[in-house]
């Protein structure tokens, strides 16, 4: 058997020890070894003198929250567009020759999406071992960690071309050192995400019908189709409209040319602990001051924070910084666990919860008082603030690159025993006042039970995050065809130590999710919701995307065999409903219709606020454990 495979056109070689097939059973492993020459021709990718992309032995990769596990028979780690194109071509040719289906998805070894669009296959179980065509994997994952370089710079035009795996935060740092900036609303607030992933999944910053995403500053894409062809498409071409927000359905973005700006400074103002009695009207006033705003709202506490970002000619102040994502050292996360763990474990809201609820609410209040966009300079009042309120306001001035995006690694909350359940939808701004009143109704009637349980609060991470977007005509974009989108997001913290127990008062999030999806025709963020959001039995997301048929036309042109179409995307395109199974609501793969869909000790019941929606609540017929 040959130990070395030569690529004569490149004059280079690579040994078999560098190539390993993913194997799950002894039989599969022996089969793979006996067909090593086949595997080599498929998996060895050598371009240039040192760059090597290879499939590695690993069964799965998982998201940071521990909720979504992806399976692949082969992981490929290219470092250039050409390497990726060669890989895709060889996998496609092998699949065609063997007659096997092929699925390829792009991700990172630890990814942030809470939906399984990132996965070529989602089962923890290894599929049945292939037969004579074992050298041709059916499930392939492309890992983008090697796609992290700045490729071309035109300083006169303020443009830069980067690989799609470069993190937004790394771009911001590079721009700060090289005399450039992004437009204010373009970066994601949490900026440790890849540029290609953000653009493909419709990730966003905040800006009401102004620049509000990395896709808004993209000029052109270099990408690879399902046959291994390499293309370069302008942002406003049909292909550009299919790639931005397209979840990788048409092709894999490998390089992005971005329009930057000259260096600029941004003033960030945080106004904390405002009463929420007129929050919708307050938003209108804030938007008259600046289009780049965000709000963090606690309906249970009847308070919110407002964050206003705007251009300034003031010089940057040493030490001023911004961003809502702060490191959470282990001792602090452990302290939160002292409250959260027993609270979450007390599913029936007995004496344990009644004792801890005041402390939980105090912790929640403390956390929202602490969370702010601007940091360092504390002023009693900011001149020109849109609301005349007697609250402390915090102002910071710095480079736009520093003020609009940040990170928390390695001390992010999700790296501890804490994790979050996250949902986000885009709705029309004109519907926001009614949506606010409906959300308040959920908290009043279902959480507080019309005043009978006023001491209940969501855990410290349970806030509604409000940001603003820009309407567009992209084919799969969450904001395609909208007039004036607002993003409404709700997170809920829980402990990983209780995998069989929902987050405390998880039914509040479930209620908001169904309300927003169904009554307000909310469009789920491609990367921030669980799979069930795209399969609600009565509320079709597919029907809410006016240009999606154009996306399918481009898919038919560039990927007729649906190589890049994930399992979840196939179900979404076919308008298939969620699959029901025991405790599927706990797994966030369905909305309950009967008690068996809930966690143990919970029952599927209509909401008090909106009886047309059912959620899992602690079973009322079960006896209280304490008190």
UniProtKB/TrEMBL annotation:
Keywords: Oxidoreductase. The keyword Ribonucleoprotein does not apply. Pathway: Cofactor biosynthesis; L-ascorbate biosynthesis. SUPFAM superfamilies: FAD-binding/transporter-associated domain-like (SSF56176). Residues 68-263 form the FAD-binding PCMH-type domain. The keyword Oxidoreductase applies. PANTHER family: FAD-BINDING PCMH-TYPE DOMAIN-CONTAINING PROTEIN (PTHR43762:SF7), L-GULONOLACTONE OXIDASE (PTHR43762). It holds the Pfam family ALO. Gene3D superfamilies: 3.30.465.10, 3.30.70.2520. This is FAD-binding PCMH-type domain-containing protein. It comes from Tetradesmus obliquus.
């Amino acid at each position: 058997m040959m130990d070395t495979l030569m690529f004569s056109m490149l004059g280079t070689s690579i040994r078999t020890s560098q190539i390993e097939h993913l194997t799950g059973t002894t039989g599969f492993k022996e089969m793979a070894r006996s067909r090593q020459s086949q595997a080599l021709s498929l998996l060895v990718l050598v371009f240039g003198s040192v760059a090597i992309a290879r499939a590695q032995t690993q069964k799965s990769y998982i998201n940071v929250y521990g909720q979504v596990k992806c399976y692949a028979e082969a992981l490929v780690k290219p470092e250039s567009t050409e390497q990726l194109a060669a890989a895709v071509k060889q996998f496609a040719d092998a699949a065609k020759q063997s007659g096997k289906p092929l699925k390829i998805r792009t991700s990172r070894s630890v990814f942030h999406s809470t939906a399984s669009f990132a996965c070529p296959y989602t089962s923890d179980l290894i599929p049945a071992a292939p037969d004579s065509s074992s050298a041709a994997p059916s499930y392939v994952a492309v890992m983008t960690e090697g796609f992290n370089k700045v490729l071309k710079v035109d300083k006169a035009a303020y443009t830069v071309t980067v690989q799609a795996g470069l993190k937004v935060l790394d771009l911001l740092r590079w721009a700060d050192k090289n005399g450039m900036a992004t437009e204010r609303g373009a970066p994601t607030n949490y900026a440790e995400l890849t540029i290609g992933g953000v653009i493909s999944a419709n990730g966003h910053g905040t800006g009401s019908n102004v620049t509000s995403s990395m896709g808004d500053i993209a000029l052109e894409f270099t990408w690879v189709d399902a046959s291994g062809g390499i293309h370069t498409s302008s942002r406003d071409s049909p292909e550009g409209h299919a790639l931005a927000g397209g979840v990788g359905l048409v092709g894999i973005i490998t390089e992005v040319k971005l329009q930057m700006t000259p260096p600029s400074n941004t003033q960030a103002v945080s106004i904390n602990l405002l009463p929420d009695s007129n929050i919708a009207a307050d938003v209108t006033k804030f938007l008259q001051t600046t289009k780049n705003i965000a709000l963090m709202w606690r309906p249970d506490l009847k308070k919110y924070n407002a964050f206003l970002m705007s251009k300034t000619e003031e010089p940057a102040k040493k030490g001023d910084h911004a961003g809502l994502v702060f490191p959470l050292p282990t001792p602090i996360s452990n302290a939160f666990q002292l409250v959260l763990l027993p609270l979450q474990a007390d599913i029936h809201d007995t004496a344990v919860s009644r004792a801890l609820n005041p402390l939980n609410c105090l912790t929640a209040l403390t956390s929202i008082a602490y969370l702010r966009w601007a940091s360092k300079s504390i002023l009693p009042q900011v001149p020109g603030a849109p609301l005349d309120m007697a609250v402390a306001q915090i102002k910071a001035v710095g480079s736009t690159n520093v003020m609009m995006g940040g990170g928390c690694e390695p001390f992010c909350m999700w790296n501890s025993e804490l994790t979050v359940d996250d949902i986000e939808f885009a709705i029309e701004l004109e519907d926001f006042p009614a949506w606010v009143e409906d959300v308040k109704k959920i908290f009043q009637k279902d959480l507080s039970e019309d005043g009978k349980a006023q001491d209940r609060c969501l855990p410290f991470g349970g806030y509604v995050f409000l940001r603003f977007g820009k309407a567009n005509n992209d084919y799969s974009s969450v904001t395609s065809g909208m007039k004036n989108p607002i993003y409404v997001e709700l997170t809920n913290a829980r402990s990983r130590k209780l995998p069989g127990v929902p987050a405390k008062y998880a039914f509040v999030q479930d209620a908001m999710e169904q309300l927003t999806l169904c009554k307000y025709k909310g469009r789920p963020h491609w990367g921030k919701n669980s799979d069930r959001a795209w399969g609600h039995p009565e509320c079709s997301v597919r029907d809410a995307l006016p240009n999606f048929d154009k996306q399918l036309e481009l898919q038919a042109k560039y990927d007729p065999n649906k190589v890049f179409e994930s399992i979840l995307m196939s179900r979404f395109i076919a308008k298939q409903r969620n699959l029901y199974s025991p405790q599927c609501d706990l797994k966030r793969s369905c909305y309950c219709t009967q008690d068996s869909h809930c966690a143990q000790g919970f029952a599927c019941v209509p909401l008090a606020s909106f009886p047309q929606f059912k959620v899992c609540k602690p079973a009322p017929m079960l006896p209280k454990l304490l008190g």
